[in-house]
Amino acid sequence: MLETTGYEAAMTRALELALLGPSWGVNPQVGAVILNQHGQILAEGWHRGAGTAHAEVDALANLAAKGIDPAGLTAVVTLEPCNHTGRVGPCAQALIDAKIAKVVYAVADPGQLAGGGAKTLQHAGLETVAGVLEQQATEQNRVWLISAKLGRPFVTLKWASSLDGRSAANDGSSKWISGAESRADAHLLRSKVDAILVGTNTVAIDDPELTARRTDGSLYEHQPLRVVLGQSEILPTARVNNGDAETLQLRTHSIHGALAELFERGVRHLLVEGGPTVASNFIKLNLVDEYINYIAPMLLGGERTSIRSIDVGNMDDAKHLEFKEIRQIGADIYIRSAPKLTSKKEG
Predict the structure, then answer these.
(1) Could you confirm whether 56 is annotated as catalytic?
(2) Is the whole model's pTM more than 0.85, yes or no?
C-alpha cells in the first residue's frame, strides 16, 4: 500500500500544477496527477480556465497520449472531483469511466451543484481518500472556496499607508506613499483578480485608471473589471472610461447588493481599492475576507487615516485579525491578514 507521504508528495505536485491555471474567473485553480501502484507520477494535468478540460480530464488525456491504460491507477487531485455538467462533463464520471481505482483529494467541493463527487465515486466502487494536505490546499484556493461557500465574491481590501496609518498628507496628496516596488506588486495583484472597486468620490478626486500595468507601463494580458460604486455621475473624460478595460458603475450604496450583482456577473475575487469611506463600510459589514497593506517607513500625522469609523466603540468591539504573510518589498512592509475566526473575547 502506498505510504501517506507518497500521497503528500503527489499532492504537492498537484498544487504546483494548479497554480499554472488562471487565478481569475468562475472556476477554481485545480491540479491533478495520476500515479501507478508504486506512487510514480505517470501523467499530470491542470485546469486552464472556463470551458477547458478540468484537471482530472486533462491528466487522463495526457495519460492516453502516452498510450497508458488508466484502469487500476490512482488520481490525486487538489479539489474533490466535480459532480455536475457545465461547459464540460462531471469529472467524477470521467474517472469512473476511465476505471481509475482510487481518488485522493485535498479539499471537499463546497458548491451545491458541483459537490458530492466523492459519494458518486464511492457508489461506483472507487476508493477515496480525503484531506491530504488539506490546510495547504485550502489556503492556496481560499478565494474560490470562500466565494463558493458564501455565494458572493471573495473581498480583498487593499491600501497603502504611512507607518502612522495615514493614506495621504493633510493637503490630500498621496503620491507616493508606497515605493515603486510595492506599486508594482499591487499592479500584479490587480492582474490576478476579477474586479477592482472604488467609490465615485475616488474617481472624482484621484481620477485613477484602475488598470493592471507592468513597470514599463504596458498592460497585463488580463484586465479586471473596473467597478465604480455610487450614484454620482462619472465624467465621460474620467480615466476609468478609457478603452483599456471594461467599466461598470453600480448606482447603489448597498454593498450587499453590489456583491450580489457582481457574483451574478461571474466575479469571484473583488479587490477593493476605494478610499477610507468605502473601505470602512466594507469593514463595518464584516465583508472583508482578506486585507493587504503596504506600510511605508514615513510619518504623516493629521486627519487622513486609512480607515475611519468601523463601529468599534471599545476594545471588546475590536475586529481581530491574523497575520498570514509579512515580507519586505523595497523599503515598505507588505502585510496580508484575515479576520480571526476565534472569539474576540479570549480572556
Answers:
(1) yes
(2) yes
